[in-house]
Amino acid sequence: MQITDAKNYGQEAESLLSAEKLPVSDLPPGLDNFLVAVGNNEVWGVAGLEIYGNYGLLRSLAVKPAFRDQGIAGKLVGEIEKLAQAKGLNAIYLLTETAPEYFSKKGYIKITRTSVPAEVMHSSEFSYVCPQSAIVMQKSL
After folding, report:
1. Where are the beta strands (DSSP E) in the chain?
2. Is residue 120 over pLDDT 90?
């Protein structure tokens, strides 16, 4: 399995996100700053980083059910964090309805929506895609 740029795997990445009931209508063109985990020429997982000023938004983390519990999500998150650091970002934010415990183990802390920088608040994820009930988390870089 390798982690690589999602540009050549757009359709497969979108199919995985749709299957996992994650939003695809607001994905960036060409899946800029998205990564995929690929094995046997098949997308096993996907994760994305949207950039807003000095901040990142981790989104669209998904792993196919057949490949879960193998550390793929953790590798994707780690590579997204490296990408964010390489781009000089100060922190990464995320919204989750299902995995706050998972992200807590990765060093993310729960915060209030009012603690999120304005740049990130204007993202589609915060503006209209994710419900108000979603948990907001942040990790400083």
Report:
1. 2-5, 34-39, 42-52, 55-63, 91-96, 109-111, 135-140
2. yes
